[in-house]
Amino acid sequence: MGSRHISVTSEVESEAVVGYSEDVIMDARNFVGQYYQEFENTEENQLIYMSTFNESTSRGGGWGCAPQAVRIHCVSAFKDMLLDYRAEEEGQGLDINSGSVVTS
């Protein structure tokens, strides 16, 4: 009987983790969907990038950037992520189905 209880507990815990993960993913998708159009593929960084990045980290974005040099790298990676999302939304994303096929 004890092993059945452990199994049920594990199943309930697993469902809770999956549910929490789904909530985090949906929140992230909503956040990115709200801001991706603000980001442009240029060398110039706009003030909106930093404020959007700061909002993301305050919402638990998980970027974990403390020192200034690391923080600059994190903002750059964040910008790249939003640019990738924007390209996909605008139909310009990478199409893996159109690539070359290598046969041996």
From TrEMBL:
Annotated localization: Cytoplasm; Cytoplasm, Cytoskeleton, Cilium basal body; Cytoplasm, Cytoskeleton, Microtubule organizing center, Centrosome; Nucleus
Highest taxon in the source lineage: Eukaryota
Keywords: Cell projection, Cilium, Cytoplasm, Cytoskeleton, Mitochondrion, Nucleus
GO cellular component: centrosome; cilium; mitochondrial intermembrane space; nucleus
Family the entry assigns: Belongs to the ARL2BP family.
Function according to Swiss-Prot or TrEMBL: Together with ARL2, plays a role in the nuclear translocation, retention and transcriptional activity of STAT3. May play a role as an effector of ARL2.
Protein name (Swiss-Prot/TrEMBL): ADP-ribosylation factor-like protein 2-binding protein
Lineage: Eukaryota, Metazoa, Chordata, Craniata, Vertebrata
